[in-house]
Specification:
Strand order of the largest sheet: 1-3-2
Number of strands: 3
Number of domains: 2
CATH architecture of the largest domain: Orthogonal Bundle
Oligomer: single chain
Structural class: mainly alpha
CATH class of the largest domain: Mainly Alpha
Largest sheet: 3 strands, antiparallel
Distance between the termini: 23 Å
Helix content: 55-70%
Strand content: 5-15%
Number of helices: 7
């Protein structure tokens, strides 16, 4: 059975036929919602000349502290996977937001660290971003937010139950 709210999604994507399943509708709705939320965040970060990927890398490096992280570890922690962390770090370093040093004990490893300028930029974004996230989920009370979080966690790839797999 299709939800009564599918008309808004169908209208936006100009689909005239019913969705083939509730699963298809849900996945399309998740993708569209995620895309819209990411677009809004990108618009906010653009004012600071940052992409969402650069912002994510800076937050990872801030969390790593003074020790910093090798490129590979940064790539593993990214929210969205990027094919070339080295180039991402090149751009951040060119803008003075990160520094990189080669390890003395293993010269193959290059550690990236957030610079004071990168730290300052992130600190200036912390509160506006916190407020922005709150605004993005306006209309959901704490209970619904918790429920949504649990639902999203349960469908994340690798977390799904095997009972729904094809035979």
């Amino acid at each position: 059975m299709q939800s009564d709210n599918s008309d808004d999604l169908k209208t936006h994507i100009k689909q005239t036929k019913p969705f083939s399943s509730i699963e298809e509708e849900i996945l399309l709705r998740l993708i569209r919602t995620g895309d819209r939320l990411q677009y809004e965040i990108n618009q906010m970060l653009k004012k600071k000349k940052l992409t969402i990927t650069q912002y994510n890398a800076l937050r990872i490096l801030r969390g790593a502290g003074d020790a910093g992280l090798p490129c590979h570890d940064i790539g593993e922690r990214m929210i969205t996977k990027v094919p070339d962390v080295t180039r991402l770090l090149d751009r951040l370093e060119d803008n003075g937001l990160v520094t990189r040093t080669r390890q003395t004990d293993d010269r193959r490893v290059v550690r990236a660290r957030i610079s004071p300028a990168g730290m300052s930029l992130l600190q200036g974004l912390d509160e506006p971003m916190r407020q922005f996230h709150i605004q993005q989920v306006t209309g959901l009370d704490r209970a619904k937010l918790s429920q949504l979080n649990d639902l999203l966690r349960s469908i994340r790839p690798g977390k799904a139950s095997s009972s729904g797999s094809a035979q």
